[in-house]
Amino acid sequence: MAIPESQLETWSHQGSVKQSSTTYATIKRALEASDTKYATKEFEVFLQGSYGNDTNIYAESDVDVVIRLDSMFYYSLDALTPAERADFETAYPGTATYTYSEFKNDVASALEKSFEKPVTPGQSAEKVVGPGKKAIKIKAEGNRRSADVVPACQYRRYRNFSIFNTEDFEKGICFFTASWHRVVNYPKQHSDNCTAKHQATGTWFKPTVRILKNLRNKLIDGDLLEEGIAPSYFLEGLLYNVPKDKFGRSYGDTIVNSFNWILKADRSKFVCANEQYYLIGDSSAVQWPAANCDLFLVALKQLWNGWA
Q: What burial class does residue 290 get, using C-beta atoms within 10 Å of its C-beta: 0-12 exposed, 13-18 middle, 19+ buried?
């Protein structure tokens, strides 16, 4: 028995917007304060993740924020000719005097100054700001939602370079995990492409993403899928690859038509929503392992057909 349209309609709704907006404004204000140690540097604060892409559901509480340092950058010259590489090295001969580690520590200090409360002597208090694997964590308090803040540097993947012409590159972000594994991603391209897909599908894309996330949570609650197998980022990417003519008429039709198309398609050719990587694979931290994608699809079919 298919899941009723009324249930899918409920799952299509966006989660908290007002609290998330207030949380982001508070964090952005703290990061852009004039007394931070990086205040004189060039940087930008922006959203990424589900709330930033309007695909957040009620069960998702985190607000994901990026602070990208632009006064230094990491880069890839793989696409350049030897002559172009020589030109690049002439144009950028030095090394950065302000490192990523310093920036990350300074961001943490700025957040601690804003969100940690003074502790009375002799008393202990639970930390509000603390390190995570990929981001600085800020715990929820009052009307403020929990948040992840990613200190990152600008990343440039060069397409061509000349001292005499405008340099041409794809701009992303680069950050390092707690174990110093480098991660490169393109959150602005992801957001722009998801918005374009949403418009191209007659505004069916983002509500359908929310339904897919709620279905994933239902699978986890019912012990049909382990937590962590199907992260929201990959679900957005999965649906991004579905042709626009599979969306519409009803949420039930959209889910069924999209699912059937995904099953028949060559998923090894699917791209991330940022269109910078293949979505499914095992060569990068920003790819979805094929086995995990398969587990999700099998569990989703089981839930859909067994609904009662």
A: middle
Long-range contacts, 140-146 (Cβ 8 Å, 24+): 140/61, 141/115, 143/19, 143/22, 144/19, 144/22, 144/23, 144/26, 145/16, 145/19, 145/20, 145/23, 145/61, 145/62, 145/63, 146/61, 146/62, 146/63
Helix segments in 32-116, DSSP class H: 49-52, 82-91, 100-115
- In this structure, what are the phi and psi dihedrals at residue 133, rounded to the nearest 5 degrees? -65, -40
For the stretch 42-86, pLDDT in tens is: 999 999 988 888 999 988 778 999 999 999 999 999 999 999 999
| Residues 286 and 183: beta-carbon distance below 8 Å | yes
- Strands 168-176, 182-185: pairing kind: antiparallel
Q: Reduced to 3 states, what is the DSSP secondary structure of residue 151? A: strand
pTM: 0.90
- Distance of alpha carbon 47 from its chain centroid, rounded? 9
Token pair listed for 209: 């993403």
CATH 3.30.460, the chain: domain bounds: 18-185
Within a 10 A sphere around the Cβ of 90, how many other Cβ atoms? 9
CATH 3.30.460 given to domain 18-185: yes
Radius of gyration of the chain (CA): 22
